[in-house]
Amino acid sequence: MSASDERKLLRILREAYTQSMYTGPEGPKLADEFHPDFQILVPELDGRTGEIADVEWIRPALSHRQRGKTVGKKELTFDCRVLDITGKIAVAKVEAHRGDRLVCTDYVLFSRLGREWRVVGKTFHQHAVASQDRL
Fold first, then answer.
1. Could you tell me which of 124, 83, 78, 73 has the C-alpha nearest to residue 97?
2. What domains can you pick out in the chain, each with its CATH number?
3. 35-72 pLDDT per residue, tens
4. For a tag on the chain, would you pick the N or C end, based on fewer CB atoms within 10 A?
């Protein structure tokens, strides 16, 4: 694992991934760092189990989630717990916290295509939280 690749991937997670998936200022917009065929494996959420969600599915879900933010609610913070790089493939474990509560753990998959790293997919676990803490 090169230090340069590690810095690039952490920047993508911090500046592109979390903004696109959770906190985009004008609704969800996938950054250039996402592969055009980016998909999400939905393990179990809102009655869906084992679905592959593409960008078209996730955009409305994220828009709904952002509209549901309440005034005074603690903002999400993110922590990359694991970053493992093998050649041109990498995986990151990202935890989303609201205050001191762990609300979601994402496993994000990257591939280096040419000279650039791209987010190609993710799966996640949404932790049991009070309804007001849902993403």
1. 78
2. 3-130 (3.10.450.50)
3. 888 888 888 766 666 777 655 545 444 444 443 343 34
4. N
